[in-house]
Amino acid sequence: MNGTESSIEIFKPFAEAFELMKKILFQPFDLKKWLVIGFAAFLAGLSGGFNSSFNPFSRWSSQRDQKAIAESFRGLGSIGQMEWWMIALFVLGGLIILALVLVLMWLGARGRFIFTDCIVRNRGAIVEPWRELRVQGNSFFLFSLVIAFVIIALVAIGALGLVLPFISWGTDAHPGLGFWIGLSLFLFFALCLAFGWALISQLMAPIMYRQRCLARRAFAQTLELIAANPGPILLYVLFLLVITIAAAMISCAAACVTCCIAAIPYVGTVILLPIPVTLCAFSLLFLRQFGPDYDVWASFMPSEFTPVLLPMPAPPPL
Protein backbone atom coordinates (compact mmCIF):
# COMPACT_ATOMS: atom_id res chain seq x y z
CA MET A 1 0.00 0.00 0.00
CA ASN A 2 1.43 3.39 -0.96
CA GLY A 3 1.15 6.65 0.91
CA THR A 4 -1.81 7.98 -1.05
CA GLU A 5 -4.29 5.21 -0.23
CA SER A 6 -4.91 6.39 3.33
CA SER A 7 -5.85 9.88 2.10
CA ILE A 8 -8.38 8.72 -0.50
CA GLU A 9 -11.97 9.11 0.69
CA ILE A 10 -15.27 7.76 -0.61
CA PHE A 11 -18.09 9.51 1.24
CA LYS A 12 -16.62 13.01 1.07
CA PRO A 13 -16.54 13.09 -2.76
CA PHE A 14 -20.13 11.87 -2.85
CA ALA A 15 -21.26 14.63 -0.49
CA GLU A 16 -19.40 17.16 -2.62
CA ALA A 17 -20.97 15.70 -5.76
CA PHE A 18 -24.42 16.22 -4.29
CA GLU A 19 -23.57 19.84 -3.52
CA LEU A 20 -22.26 20.35 -7.05
CA MET A 21 -25.45 18.87 -8.47
CA LYS A 22 -27.51 21.43 -6.55
CA LYS A 23 -25.35 24.30 -7.79
CA ILE A 24 -25.42 23.09 -11.40
CA LEU A 25 -29.15 22.38 -11.64
CA PHE A 26 -30.89 24.43 -8.96
CA GLN A 27 -28.72 27.44 -8.03
CA PRO A 28 -30.21 29.05 -10.02
CA PHE A 29 -32.71 26.89 -11.87
CA ASP A 30 -32.48 27.35 -15.64
CA LEU A 31 -34.83 25.23 -17.75
CA LYS A 32 -32.82 25.68 -20.95
CA LYS A 33 -29.60 24.67 -19.20
CA TRP A 34 -31.39 21.69 -17.64
CA LEU A 35 -32.62 20.48 -21.04
CA VAL A 36 -29.21 20.89 -22.67
CA ILE A 37 -27.37 19.06 -19.91
CA GLY A 38 -30.08 16.41 -20.06
CA PHE A 39 -29.39 15.93 -23.76
CA ALA A 40 -25.66 15.62 -23.03
CA ALA A 41 -26.41 13.01 -20.35
CA PHE A 42 -28.64 11.17 -22.82
CA LEU A 43 -25.84 11.09 -25.38
CA ALA A 44 -23.38 9.85 -22.76
CA GLY A 45 -25.78 7.06 -21.84
CA LEU A 46 -25.70 5.70 -25.38
CA SER A 47 -22.22 4.28 -24.77
CA GLY A 48 -23.46 2.23 -21.84
CA GLY A 49 -24.29 -0.75 -24.08
CA PHE A 50 -27.48 -2.72 -24.56
CA ASN A 51 -29.02 -4.91 -21.90
CA SER A 52 -30.98 -8.01 -22.59
CA SER A 53 -32.69 -10.45 -20.29
CA PHE A 54 -32.44 -13.22 -22.86
CA ASN A 55 -30.19 -16.06 -21.78
CA PRO A 56 -29.38 -18.55 -24.54
CA PHE A 57 -28.55 -21.22 -21.95
CA SER A 58 -31.64 -20.81 -19.79
CA ARG A 59 -33.70 -23.28 -21.84
CA TRP A 60 -31.20 -26.14 -21.75
CA SER A 61 -33.31 -27.96 -19.21
CA SER A 62 -35.03 -30.80 -20.99
CA GLN A 63 -34.27 -33.40 -23.64
CA ARG A 64 -36.80 -31.79 -25.97
CA ASP A 65 -35.05 -28.44 -25.69
CA GLN A 66 -31.66 -30.06 -26.27
CA LYS A 67 -32.98 -31.80 -29.38
CA ALA A 68 -34.45 -28.57 -30.73
CA ILE A 69 -31.18 -26.70 -30.19
CA ALA A 70 -29.14 -29.43 -31.85
CA GLU A 71 -31.50 -29.53 -34.84
CA SER A 72 -31.36 -25.76 -35.17
CA PHE A 73 -27.58 -25.85 -35.38
CA ARG A 74 -27.68 -28.63 -37.95
CA GLY A 75 -30.23 -26.61 -39.87
CA LEU A 76 -27.62 -23.95 -40.47
CA GLY A 77 -26.18 -26.24 -43.11
CA SER A 78 -29.31 -25.82 -45.23
CA ILE A 79 -28.64 -22.14 -45.84
CA GLY A 80 -27.75 -23.02 -49.41
CA GLN A 81 -31.42 -23.95 -49.98
CA MET A 82 -32.58 -20.41 -49.17
CA GLU A 83 -33.55 -17.99 -51.89
CA TRP A 84 -30.90 -15.45 -52.81
CA TRP A 85 -33.13 -12.53 -51.92
CA MET A 86 -33.67 -13.93 -48.42
CA ILE A 87 -29.92 -14.19 -47.89
CA ALA A 88 -29.47 -10.65 -49.22
CA LEU A 89 -32.22 -9.43 -46.90
CA PHE A 90 -30.57 -11.02 -43.88
CA VAL A 91 -27.20 -9.55 -44.82
CA LEU A 92 -28.70 -6.10 -45.40
CA GLY A 93 -30.55 -6.22 -42.10
CA GLY A 94 -27.39 -7.25 -40.29
CA LEU A 95 -25.42 -4.41 -41.87
CA ILE A 96 -28.10 -1.88 -40.93
CA ILE A 97 -28.13 -3.08 -37.33
CA LEU A 98 -24.33 -3.01 -37.19
CA ALA A 99 -24.25 0.52 -38.60
CA LEU A 100 -26.85 1.65 -36.06
CA VAL A 101 -24.87 0.15 -33.19
CA LEU A 102 -21.67 1.84 -34.38
CA VAL A 103 -23.41 5.21 -34.70
CA LEU A 104 -24.83 4.91 -31.19
CA MET A 105 -21.42 3.93 -29.82
CA TRP A 106 -19.83 6.92 -31.55
CA LEU A 107 -22.47 9.33 -30.26
CA GLY A 108 -22.12 7.85 -26.79
CA ALA A 109 -18.34 8.27 -26.85
CA ARG A 110 -18.65 11.89 -27.92
CA GLY A 111 -21.44 12.43 -25.42
CA ARG A 112 -19.30 11.28 -22.49
CA PHE A 113 -16.94 14.20 -22.98
CA ILE A 114 -19.73 16.69 -23.64
CA PHE A 115 -21.50 15.67 -20.43
CA THR A 116 -18.24 15.81 -18.49
CA ASP A 117 -17.59 19.30 -19.84
CA CYS A 118 -21.06 20.42 -18.74
CA ILE A 119 -20.33 19.24 -15.20
CA VAL A 120 -16.81 20.65 -15.05
CA ARG A 121 -17.65 24.08 -16.45
CA ASN A 122 -21.18 24.32 -15.05
CA ARG A 123 -22.73 25.11 -18.38
CA GLY A 124 -25.26 23.75 -20.80
CA ALA A 125 -23.41 23.47 -24.09
CA ILE A 126 -23.29 20.93 -26.89
CA VAL A 127 -21.67 22.47 -29.96
CA GLU A 128 -18.59 23.96 -28.32
CA PRO A 129 -17.46 20.85 -26.39
CA TRP A 130 -18.42 18.72 -29.41
CA ARG A 131 -15.80 20.58 -31.44
CA GLU A 132 -13.27 21.12 -28.68
CA LEU A 133 -13.20 17.48 -27.58
CA ARG A 134 -13.54 15.93 -31.01
CA VAL A 135 -10.13 14.23 -30.95
CA GLN A 136 -10.65 12.68 -27.52
CA GLY A 137 -14.18 11.53 -28.33
CA ASN A 138 -13.18 9.86 -31.59
CA SER A 139 -10.14 8.25 -29.97
CA PHE A 140 -12.30 6.87 -27.17
CA PHE A 141 -14.79 5.49 -29.70
CA LEU A 142 -12.14 3.72 -31.79
CA PHE A 143 -10.45 2.28 -28.71
CA SER A 144 -13.81 1.11 -27.33
CA LEU A 145 -14.55 -0.51 -30.67
CA VAL A 146 -11.30 -2.47 -30.55
CA ILE A 147 -11.96 -3.57 -26.97
CA ALA A 148 -15.51 -4.58 -27.90
CA PHE A 149 -14.26 -6.74 -30.77
CA VAL A 150 -11.68 -8.37 -28.50
CA ILE A 151 -14.29 -9.13 -25.83
CA ILE A 152 -16.75 -10.46 -28.40
CA ALA A 153 -14.06 -12.66 -29.94
CA LEU A 154 -13.06 -14.10 -26.57
CA VAL A 155 -16.68 -14.71 -25.59
CA ALA A 156 -17.42 -16.29 -28.98
CA ILE A 157 -14.47 -18.65 -28.65
CA GLY A 158 -15.59 -19.68 -25.18
CA ALA A 159 -19.20 -20.13 -26.28
CA LEU A 160 -18.11 -22.18 -29.28
CA GLY A 161 -16.19 -24.49 -27.00
CA LEU A 162 -19.36 -25.09 -24.99
CA VAL A 163 -21.73 -25.49 -27.93
CA LEU A 164 -19.52 -27.50 -30.30
CA PRO A 165 -20.09 -30.87 -28.57
CA PHE A 166 -23.85 -30.44 -28.89
CA ILE A 167 -23.53 -29.80 -32.62
CA SER A 168 -21.39 -32.87 -33.23
CA TRP A 169 -23.29 -35.23 -30.93
CA GLY A 170 -26.75 -34.12 -32.06
CA THR A 171 -29.66 -35.60 -30.13
CA ASP A 172 -27.32 -37.75 -28.04
CA ALA A 173 -25.84 -34.67 -26.39
CA HIS A 174 -26.52 -34.37 -22.67
CA PRO A 175 -24.97 -31.65 -20.50
CA GLY A 176 -22.95 -33.21 -17.72
CA LEU A 177 -21.06 -31.88 -14.74
CA GLY A 178 -18.16 -30.74 -16.89
CA PHE A 179 -20.49 -28.67 -19.05
CA TRP A 180 -22.04 -26.86 -16.09
CA ILE A 181 -18.63 -26.16 -14.58
CA GLY A 182 -17.42 -24.84 -17.93
CA LEU A 183 -20.57 -22.76 -18.32
CA SER A 184 -20.11 -21.24 -14.87
CA LEU A 185 -16.48 -20.38 -15.59
CA PHE A 186 -17.46 -18.97 -18.97
CA LEU A 187 -20.14 -16.70 -17.51
CA PHE A 188 -17.79 -15.58 -14.74
CA PHE A 189 -15.09 -14.79 -17.29
CA ALA A 190 -17.52 -12.86 -19.50
CA LEU A 191 -18.82 -10.84 -16.55
CA CYS A 192 -15.28 -10.03 -15.43
CA LEU A 193 -14.40 -8.78 -18.91
CA ALA A 194 -17.49 -6.60 -19.15
CA PHE A 195 -17.17 -5.26 -15.61
CA GLY A 196 -13.46 -4.59 -15.98
CA TRP A 197 -13.92 -2.60 -19.16
CA ALA A 198 -16.84 -0.66 -17.63
CA LEU A 199 -14.60 0.42 -14.74
CA ILE A 200 -11.61 1.24 -16.92
CA SER A 201 -13.66 3.21 -19.44
CA GLN A 202 -15.31 5.21 -16.66
CA LEU A 203 -11.91 6.31 -15.35
CA MET A 204 -10.40 6.78 -18.80
CA ALA A 205 -12.77 9.51 -19.94
CA PRO A 206 -11.95 12.01 -17.13
CA ILE A 207 -8.23 11.36 -17.62
CA MET A 208 -8.55 12.05 -21.34
CA TYR A 209 -10.58 15.18 -20.60
CA ARG A 210 -8.05 16.48 -18.07
CA GLN A 211 -4.89 15.74 -20.04
CA ARG A 212 -6.34 16.03 -23.56
CA CYS A 213 -4.60 12.76 -24.37
CA LEU A 214 -5.61 9.85 -26.57
CA ALA A 215 -7.29 6.67 -25.40
CA ARG A 216 -4.18 4.47 -25.47
CA ARG A 217 -2.31 6.69 -23.03
CA ALA A 218 -5.35 7.07 -20.78
CA PHE A 219 -5.83 3.30 -20.79
CA ALA A 220 -2.25 2.75 -19.63
CA GLN A 221 -2.58 5.40 -16.92
CA THR A 222 -5.85 3.89 -15.72
CA LEU A 223 -4.28 0.46 -15.37
CA GLU A 224 -1.36 1.97 -13.45
CA LEU A 225 -3.75 3.86 -11.19
CA ILE A 226 -5.78 0.73 -10.41
CA ALA A 227 -2.64 -1.34 -9.80
CA ALA A 228 -1.16 1.29 -7.49
CA ASN A 229 -4.37 1.90 -5.52
CA PRO A 230 -6.36 -1.35 -5.42
CA GLY A 231 -7.93 -0.66 -2.03
CA PRO A 232 -9.51 2.74 -2.76
CA ILE A 233 -10.55 1.63 -6.24
CA LEU A 234 -12.29 -1.44 -4.81
CA LEU A 235 -14.14 0.67 -2.23
CA TYR A 236 -15.09 3.11 -4.98
CA VAL A 237 -16.48 0.30 -7.13
CA LEU A 238 -18.49 -1.19 -4.26
CA PHE A 239 -19.92 2.17 -3.24
CA LEU A 240 -20.68 3.08 -6.85
CA LEU A 241 -22.45 -0.25 -7.26
CA VAL A 242 -24.64 0.48 -4.24
CA ILE A 243 -25.66 3.95 -5.38
CA THR A 244 -26.19 2.70 -8.93
CA ILE A 245 -28.63 0.08 -7.65
CA ALA A 246 -30.37 2.78 -5.61
CA ALA A 247 -30.53 5.00 -8.70
CA ALA A 248 -32.02 2.14 -10.72
CA MET A 249 -34.69 1.63 -8.07
CA ILE A 250 -35.52 5.33 -8.14
CA SER A 251 -35.72 5.21 -11.94
CA CYS A 252 -38.11 2.26 -11.83
CA ALA A 253 -40.27 4.01 -9.26
CA ALA A 254 -40.32 7.16 -11.38
CA ALA A 255 -41.34 5.15 -14.43
CA CYS A 256 -44.24 3.65 -12.49
CA VAL A 257 -45.35 6.97 -10.99
CA THR A 258 -45.24 8.75 -14.36
CA CYS A 259 -47.00 5.91 -16.22
CA CYS A 260 -43.77 4.97 -18.04
CA ILE A 261 -43.15 8.53 -19.23
CA ALA A 262 -39.82 8.45 -17.40
CA ALA A 263 -38.92 5.37 -19.44
CA ILE A 264 -39.00 7.34 -22.70
CA PRO A 265 -35.47 8.02 -23.99
CA TYR A 266 -34.24 11.55 -23.24
CA VAL A 267 -37.48 12.41 -21.43
CA GLY A 268 -36.56 10.09 -18.59
CA THR A 269 -33.03 11.47 -18.54
CA VAL A 270 -34.37 15.00 -18.20
CA ILE A 271 -36.78 14.03 -15.42
CA LEU A 272 -34.09 12.18 -13.47
CA LEU A 273 -31.20 14.47 -14.40
CA PRO A 274 -29.96 14.98 -10.80
CA ILE A 275 -29.02 11.29 -10.69
CA PRO A 276 -26.57 11.19 -13.66
CA VAL A 277 -25.16 14.59 -12.71
CA THR A 278 -24.44 13.40 -9.17
CA LEU A 279 -22.92 10.12 -10.35
CA CYS A 280 -20.69 11.83 -12.91
CA ALA A 281 -19.57 14.47 -10.42
CA PHE A 282 -18.84 11.75 -7.87
CA SER A 283 -16.50 9.96 -10.27
CA LEU A 284 -14.71 13.21 -11.12
CA LEU A 285 -14.34 14.19 -7.47
CA PHE A 286 -13.09 10.76 -6.47
CA LEU A 287 -10.51 10.75 -9.25
CA ARG A 288 -9.17 14.23 -8.45
CA GLN A 289 -7.90 12.96 -5.10
CA PHE A 290 -5.05 11.19 -6.89
CA GLY A 291 -3.32 14.42 -7.88
CA PRO A 292 -3.41 17.32 -10.34
CA ASP A 293 -3.03 15.03 -13.35
CA TYR A 294 -6.43 13.55 -12.51
CA ASP A 295 -8.14 16.76 -11.38
CA VAL A 296 -10.46 18.05 -14.12
CA TRP A 297 -10.75 21.37 -12.24
CA ALA A 298 -6.98 21.90 -12.01
CA SER A 299 -6.86 24.37 -14.91
CA PHE A 300 -10.33 25.87 -14.63
CA MET A 301 -12.85 26.09 -11.81
CA PRO A 302 -16.13 28.05 -11.89
CA SER A 303 -16.23 30.60 -9.11
CA GLU A 304 -19.48 29.16 -7.78
CA PHE A 305 -17.71 25.82 -7.25
CA THR A 306 -14.99 27.30 -5.04
CA PRO A 307 -16.83 26.81 -1.72
CA VAL A 308 -17.21 23.11 -2.53
CA LEU A 309 -14.05 22.33 -4.46
CA LEU A 310 -11.31 23.47 -2.16
CA PRO A 311 -7.83 23.06 -3.67
CA MET A 312 -6.64 19.51 -3.25
CA PRO A 313 -3.17 19.13 -1.71
CA ALA A 314 -0.56 17.40 -3.83
CA PRO A 315 -0.15 13.72 -2.90
CA PRO A 316 3.02 12.84 -0.99
CA PRO A 317 5.83 11.27 -3.01
CA LEU A 318 5.75 7.51 -3.37
Give me some keywords for this one.
318 residues, mainly alpha
Question: How would you summarize the topology of this molecule?
Answer:
Layout: H1 11-25, H2 31-45, H3 63-74, H4 84-121, H5 127-132, H6 134-169, H7 177-211, H8 215-228, H9 230-257, H10 267-271, H11 274-287
Helix pairs in contact: 1-11, 2-4, 4-6, 6-7, 7-8
Quick description:
The chain is mostly helical and 318 residues long.
Question: Explain this structure to me?
Answer:
By secondary structure, the protein is mainly α. It has one domain (5-50, 86-304). The protein contains eleven helices and no strands. α2 (31-45) crosses α4, α4 (84-121) packs across α6 (134-169) and α6 packs antiparallel against α7. The longest helix has 38 residues, at 84-121. It is globular and about 70 Å long. The termini are close together.
**In sequence order, what are the helices and strands, one letter per element?**
HHHHHHHHHHH
- Which percent band covers the strand fraction? under 5%
Q: Please compute the radius of gyration using only Cα atoms.
A: 23 Å
General shape:
globular
What summary fits the major beta sheet? none
Number of strands: 0
* Total count of helical runs of at least 4 residues: 11
Q: Note poorly predicted spans.
A: 49-62
